[in-house]
Fold this protein.
Amino acid sequence: MISNKKGFEVLYDGRISKSLAFTKDEREHLGLRGLLPYSVVGQNIQVKRVMEGLRRKDSNIERYIMLSALQDRNEKLYYRIISEYIEETMPIVYTPTVGEACIEFSHIFRRAKGFYITPDDKGEILKILDNWPEKDIRVIVITDGQRILGLGDLGANGMGIPIGKLALYTACAGIQPSQCLPVMFDVGTNNKEIREDILYLGYPKERLEGKEYFELVDEFVMAVQEKYPNALIQFEDFLTPNAYALLNIYKEKVLCFNDDIQGTAAVALAGLYASTRITKILFSELRIMFLGAGSAATGIADLLVFALVKEGLSKQEALERLWFIDINGLVESSRNDLMPHNLPYAHHHKPLNFIESIKTIKPHVLIGATGAFGAFTKEVIEVMGNINERPVIFALSNPTSKAECTAEQAYAWSHGKAVFASGSPFEMVKFNNKEYRPGQGNNAYIFPGMGLGVIIANASIIPDELFLTAAKTLSEMVSDENIEDGALYPRLNEIRVLSLEIAFAVAKKAYELGIARNKKPKDLKQTISDYMYNPIY
Ligand code: NAD
């Protein structure tokens, strides 16, 4: 039986409620007789009802609100729906709709989800964590809302991101929902418009910065070590300098990673490995140019260096394969406006603008991570097409409204030659009688499986080697049929299987590296599979 709760306590507890699917016997035992209409329906019928309702809505934000309410009412049904209809629902529960939901967060707020920490909690974070009802947390996603997708500082409205990411942990990799904790590190916002919105729900002050900011993060991280020592902390959508600073402080001390830096890197690396099956250029010979030199692009480059060195290049040779352009042009060594994470990639070269850089350096691959819509102009794609038989173009900025170019533009402007991937989803494109399925370099290919793997091994930290393992595993699962369609990633509807494979590879590697804190089970894959949440009643 479900629990010792009865009546309304069962019916209105989203974690256990099955609503109309409670059987006659359950209704009797749980004191539900009279509280539900006569009909007992199976979960399949409930799925049908929800999907009908969802498709009847006329905007994605309304669909987001509907699914969010379902998550509160009937968690299993919610996860069954987003797992089974992942291609249809992921763009609603995550990017691009989650971006809109964050912008509107204070306006569409219905019911509090997740955990909020503000500067008023200084010195008491451990104490207030006791208010969270679950005792065995395994994944925490935390943001401070300062760089939400490509949308900037949204303050506490950014809570949509940890909630959405954790929903994907469960839907894509079967992490138990009760073991997930979304955290908003609400230290204010420098977005005056949001702060002055009468409906704003967050800490209505300018952002806490500097020493006090880092001390508060540290108090949180240490409180987690004490209260939830097995929990993975995923840092999400922090402003780039803070993202790097936090990662550098904690990555060798606690079980954590930054998805914008490391998750993005692994998914992009997997796409690059797959692209070489089309371009026939050896991975170790690729010349890669980034537009944007922030956390996403630099994270990709850092993992590329690690991967290239594993292929036998020296670190210097690997660095020389990678070129960056930012808002001020080519990242080169005479510039004095570069951040520490840019310095290894600042080559000795004369200053050039973007187009000049492409013409001079002749990259095989162009990766956009700028948040600047339309930054890949017709000229850019044409020049890449002139230099390469099959130019590889990744327009990674999210949401769709920020993409450097659309899939259609990439195919049309390159006359069908582009090998394209994007950060946000694009529909199939028809060009010259051929259909292309633009692959989405969605971080959801990596982080849920990574989380599952490190949970099972109970890894103490996440070294780069684990991201390399995850990227390789993902790229090996890109089928010939995917490649035939021009897609560099498998279909998302296979995500639970993909996540299981990634988790298996990651956990295995964690044991090899001696960073696993759990004893190795006899049958590792079976143990992972047995752990996975099953959303069917
Ligand atoms: P960031 O703010 O750290 O970096 C942005 C960089 O882009 C900066 O170097 C800036 O100089 C440069 N830039 C901005 N406009 C430019 C322009 N017009 N021309 C040239 N350079 C320009 O941000 P970030 O964390 O690196 O994220 C960047 C984008 O990548 C965001 O839109 C984010 O949503 C996206 N992203 C995608 C994925 C994915 O697809 N898997 C993952 C993470 C981030």
